[in-house]
Prior knowledge:
This protein is mostly beta strands. It has one helix at 10-19; strands at residues 2-4, 22-25, 28-32, 36-38, 42-46, 50-54, 61-63, 76-81, 84-86, 97-100, 103-108, 111-113, 116-117, 121-124, 127-132, 135-137, 140-141, 149-154, 179-184, 187-191, 193-196, 207-213, 216-220, 225-227, 230-236, 242-244, 249-251, 257-259, 267-272. The chain is built from one helix and 29 strands.
Amino acid sequence: MAIVKPSMTATQINKYLKKYRIITFESGTYILKKPLIVYSNTTINCQPNVIFRREHAGRMLLLDVDDSTTKYNGTHDVVWTGGKFIANTNSNDAIVIVICHCKNIKFENVIINGCVGLHSFEINSSQNVQIINCTMMNQTSREGEDHKEAIQIDFCYKGGLSLEGATERSPCYDNQHCDKILIDHCSFINCPNGIGTHTVSEKADYHTNIAIKDCTFTNIAKNAIRLLGMKKVSISGCNGKILIDKSRKGYKSSGDKVTLNEARRNVEVTIDNIEIA
């Protein structure tokens, strides 16, 4: 087991994240001048009052992925518990936590404050991801773009997620959709949108087996939950506006918009005791 201390730089911390599989962050404030990268078979615990402050232009936390990673073959079996990510200490747009081409991932008791422009969590082309008892708060939009979600469920294509070294033809942009996503007892405060997506592929592919349970939404500008291109969805014990989107517009892997056929829509959505707004 390794102990990470607030005096360590992001470069030093990344060496520990690559070498050790059980890691504890000691209480204190960590200044991040580059993203932290997490690898497979890792358990990470943050002691009380662990704070990560972003002082670089990019993402704060990335599960290891490269331009050749496909399907659910990337980072797997990670548990991250605790910590507060403060993202608005740098004015640049950036996703805070990126989960891409991953499997068996759990984030619990995490706070993300001040995501700028994009998403607090990007769950992209991944399977069996659990976001439990996390808080997303004070997220801001870029001018004219109020459609970004605090937690986005998306598929990997060039126009939607930039990966280092990747081109439009890189294998990583395989349009793999997500499966088995659980968002449970999470809070969304002062965000443009809560959970969902604003993109859908031109093919009849769906994000499947999505469960959203006992989440609260406070001062959400648009939609608490927006379902688009999803199949086998269950929502229970949540408050706020839920949009079942029958959009006919999707996106090609190039990022270009495309008109969808009439059969392309959400199916098998179960919502318990919730009024659709």
